[in-house]
Amino acid sequence: MLKKIEHIGIAVKDLKKSNELFSKLFGKAFYKVENVESEHVSTSFFMLGESKIELLEASDPDSAIAKFIEKKGEGVHHIAYEVEDIQAEMKRLQAEGFELINKEPKKGADNKLICFLHPKSTNGVLVELCQEMIS
Ligand code: ZN
Known about the structure:
Layout: E1 4-11, H1 15-26, E2 32-36, E3 41-48, E4 51-58, H2 64-72, E5 75-82, H3 86-95, E6 106-108, E7 112-117, E8 127-132
Parallel strand pairs: 1-4, 5-8
Antiparallel strand pairs: 1-5, 2-3, 3-4, 6-7, 7-8
The protein binds zinc ion.
């Protein structure tokens, strides 16, 4: 079961400028900036009540975010849902016919284990599953 929207990921060209823009929009500052080497992105996170907004800037021209912006421009990139047990959800969703982009959970930003579902199996929406890592 997917528990709630954990965050919405927004692809941006310039993280610094976007941090300023979204700080103004939300009326509050981001609480962290993090580079995710494995995904070639720089991210920042804003907390809004129960949910978060993640801004993503490509740190490499070959990254998925760079390609996304090239094709579609800046904007909503993915919706992330919180799960209790990511392995169990991956198994369940695969059995339901969804296509997993990564076959094993991987380490994402903000201390999470994550897995993406291919948008072609989810009506064009890139879905991220995320499970809090216990550190
Ligand atoms: Zn995300």
